[in-house]
Design goal:
The complex is a heterodimer of chains A (238) and B (310). With 238 residues, chain A is an alpha/beta fold. Helices cover 36% and strands 26% of the residues of chain A. In chain A, a hairpin with a 2-residue loop joins strand 1 and strand 2. In chain A, helix 3 runs parallel beside helix 6 and helix 4 packs antiparallel against helix 6. Chain A starts with a strand and ends in a 5-residue tail after the last helix. Chain B has 11 helices and 4 strands. Chain B has one domain. Chain B has a two-stranded antiparallel ribbon with strand order 1-4. Chain B has a two-stranded antiparallel ribbon with strand order 2-3. The termini of chain B are far apart. With 310 residues, chain B is mainly alpha-helical. Classes of the chains: A alpha/beta (238), B mainly alpha (310). At the A-B interface, helix 2, helix 3 and helix 6 of A face helix 6 and helix 7 of B.
Chain lengths: 238, 310
């Protein structure tokens, strides 16, 4: 039995600086797996490598049994891997609807695309109300919703979310986390990168703690949430 | 003052040509943030491509009705080949390097292309005669339009409409927009950005080729240096309209063309300004206009402020 995503001894470097120093983890279909850790731990680098924007210097990435290492970034999404990047990166001068349509860039089933756009509006009603508005005019939280909706438009087998709660108000953050829980309930497989360890671990089936390019601790979300060292370092609990 | 309509039309004709060439500057800049200083030479080689078809391929005395479409195709083939070749062999290897490297390369390429035409194109050391469309000028009220200018009058709006449709309605066009706004994220959506860059160069070259033919028809002759000043003007038009915006490029071209026409017509009427109204001063006024617009709208007429990323 192979996992949907298998990362083995992955190493990524920016020039001489090693940002990811040989990490291994798995994501099974239907699971939510989270990578937590502070700034510079290598979480975003890991996701950007999985989606082909960065090339690894060593290790293996297997998705659905196939190696992703040699596949260029623009072909990754067609394999079923969608990435909602850190900082949201919506297309600011396009409308919300056009942003969503770009998420379905490689799809040809017009009816299915329209149906999935409607699904995004059901998931995030505010996006539906403002469908003709330029995405750059949205608030941070709304942009996050759009980025997630856009990533879902490719009908991914695995949804990668990078810091979805970053820079959001507590209320907006709760909303986003509730949506992730809803997606999980619908059976979406999610790889979630977060600095908000509390929220991420409460949702996740499995969690991995990263520190300066290494995974230093792994376990179920529940176990990590109650782990003494995690509570001290990431949850701010003495 | 009853020559005003005529001057406006003159400006419109000149400006349409600027606009056609400006499209290439603005598209390439919009996608890769490169000022392709060799674009003026892509326009020039297009004109020579059209001439080649007329002089060396078609039999003597071919009617312009048949010759013109074939000349256009020849111009587009040459321009596109030069532009796509430049992208592949000169610019792409430098992508990801310091921003100055491709810029200097563009300037070098511009000179190299000029010299190549000068050295190798038959009798190109002096200006070569470009075929003209027969038939007298058209009179519409007080306005006279030369036969050669009818071409650009039709070609510019048609080109703009085709480009607008392409960018807004086709998949590749939407991929272009996405790449212009955020290349890495465009890749995440499945957009092959390398291909989009080639498309931007090729499209720019096609419109430059149309501009090159328009230039030949308007002035009746072409030479290897024709791309320099015209390229500079077209670049000015692109900046004036808001670089990266295709409609801005055409608008900038028209504004620039009309400003030039009006300056040659009226500035010498202003007391004490007689010597500033000549054709050579028109270039100066064009750049004065650019500076004035940029003082008040640094992003250009239709440009957008780049600060909308939350």
């Amino acid at each position: 039995m192979t996992a949907l995503l298998e990362v083995e001894d992955l190493k990524v470097a920016y020039g001489k600086i090693q940002a990811v120093k040989g990490i291994s983890f798995k994501v099974e279909a239907g699971e939510v797996v989270t990578l937590i850790g502070t700034n510079g731990a290598g979480k975003t680098t890991t996701l950007r490598t999985l989606s082909g924007l960065l090339k690894p210097v060593g290790g293996q990435i297997k998705f659905n049994g196939k190696s992703l290492k040699k596949i260029p970034a623009h072909e990754i999404v067609s394999h079923g891997l969608a990435h909602s990047p850190e900082g949201r990166h919506i297309f600011p001068r396009m409308t919300i609807e056009d942003n969503l349509r770009l998420g379905a860039f490689l799809r040809n089933d017009k009816a299915g695309i329209d149906k999935d756009i409607q699904r995004s509006y059901d998931l995030f009603p505010i996006l539906g109300e403002r469908r003709k508005q330029a995405a750059g005019t949205l608030s941070g939280g709304e942009q996050q919703m759009l980025a997630m909706g856009r990533a879902l438009m490719s009908q991914p087998k695995l949804l990668m979310l990078d810091e979805p709660s970053m820079g959001l108000s507590p209320i907006m953050m709760q909303k986003i986390m509730a949506t992730i829980a809803e997606l999980k309930a619908q059976g979406t497989t999610i790889l979630l990168v977060e600095q908000n360890a509390q929220a991420a671990l409460s949702l996740a089936d499995h969690g991995h703690v990263m520190e300066v390019g290494n995974i230093v601790l792994s376990g179920s979300g529940h176990d990590l949430l109650h782990d003494e060292s995690v509570r001290k370092a990431y949850l701010g609990v003495d | 003052m009853n020559e005003l309509p005529q001057q406006l039309v003159n400006g419109l004709l000149l400006g349409s040509m600027y606009g056609l060439v400006a499209l290439g500057y603005t598209m390439v800049y919009g996608i890769v943030q490169l000022i392709n200083f060799a674009h003026g030479e892509i326009f020039m080689t297009g004109a020579f491509g059209a001439l080649t078809v007329y002089v060396y391929i078609l039999p003597d005395g071919t009617s312009m009705l048949i010759a013109l479409p074939l000349m256009l195709i020849g111009a587009m083939i040459i321009s596109t080949t030069v532009a796509v070749g430049a992208e592949r062999f000169a610019y792409r290897p430098l992508r990801g390097g310091p921003r100055l490297a491709p810029l200097i390369t563009a300037i070098g390429l511009s000179l190299a292309l000029q010299q190549a035409v000068w050295a190798w194109y038959p009798e190109a050391k002096s200006a070569r005669t470009f075929p003209s469309i027969p038939g007298g000028p058209f009179e519409i009220g007080t306005v006279t339009i030369q036969t050669g200018d009818v071409f650009v009058l039709c070609a510019a709006p048609l080109s703009m409409a085709i480009l607008g449709y392409f960018v807004m309605r086709t998949r590749t066009g939407r991929g272009m927009q996405a790449t212009a706004q955020d290349p890495d994220t465009a890749k995440l959506m499945g957009v092959n950005t390398d291909r989009i860059i080639v498309v931007a160069f090729a499209l720019g070259a096609i419109f430059a080729a149309v501009g090159g033919v328009a230039y030949g028809l308007k002035y009746g002759q072409i030479d290897f240096r024709m791309g320099f000043i015209l390229g500079l003007k077209a670049f000015t038009a692109a900046v004036l309209g808001g670089i990266g915006n295709i409609y801005g490029a055409m608008l900038g071209g028209l504004v620039l063309g009309i400003a030039e026409a009006l300056s040659t017509a009226y500035i010498s009427d202003i007391p004490g300004m007689q010597q500033f109204g000549s054709q050579s001063w028109a270039n100066v006024w064009a750049f004065v206009l650019l500076i004035l617009v940029l003082l008040f709208r640094p992003q250009g007429l239709l440009g957008e402020r780049v600060a909308d990323r939350a």
